[in-house]
Amino acid sequence: MAAAIALASVIVAGLAVHAFLPDTSATDIAGDALYAVAAYSGIVLLAPRLKPWVVALIAGAWCVAVELFQLTGIPLALGGLLPPVMLLLGTVFDARDLVIYIAAVVTAGLIDAAVRRPGKLDE
Q1: Which of 35, 39, 106, 112 could lock 59 by a disulfide, CB 3.0 to 4.6 Å apart?
Q2: Residue/partner pairs of 27-35 with CB below 8 Å, 24 or more apart
Q3: Where are the bilayer-spanning segments (predicted)?
């Protein structure tokens, strides 16, 4: 239940950042971090028994794969046909996003580990 609430909250926050705030570096970074946390939360929702470090690894791999997929130009083309696709696949590659994704999933994993078993961050 907590993962579902986290995922819904992160999605709402991400959509709010996208819709209501000006397009700046700060909102881009916030959106990237929220995207990564949404990926993390979605994996926890689908596989709640996975250890936080495994979830972080999978979420990080997903985010990196999506970012690298943008190098093909396919997400940009699909986004032109169906704009909501841009929210899932992005549009153009930005190496800075890779750093933000990894930082966000590591942070989410540390928080998750602390919440699941206080005092046991090494799971």
Answers
A1: 39
A2: 28/94, 29/96, 29/100, 32/97, 32/100, 32/101, 32/104, 33/100, 33/101, 33/103, 33/104, 34/10, 34/104, 35/63, 35/101, 35/104
A3: 29-47, 98-115
pLDDT for residue 123: 47
DSSP helix, strand, coil percent of the chain (3-state; round to 5): 80, 0, 20
**pLDDT single digits (tens) 62-112:** 999 999 999 999 999 999 999 999 989 999 999 999 999 999 999 999 999
Q: How confident is the model at residue 119 (pLDDT cuts 50, 70, 90)?
A: low
Q: How far apart (Å, rounded) are the C-alpha atoms in residues 105 and 60? A: 6
pTM score, two decimals?
Answer: 0.89
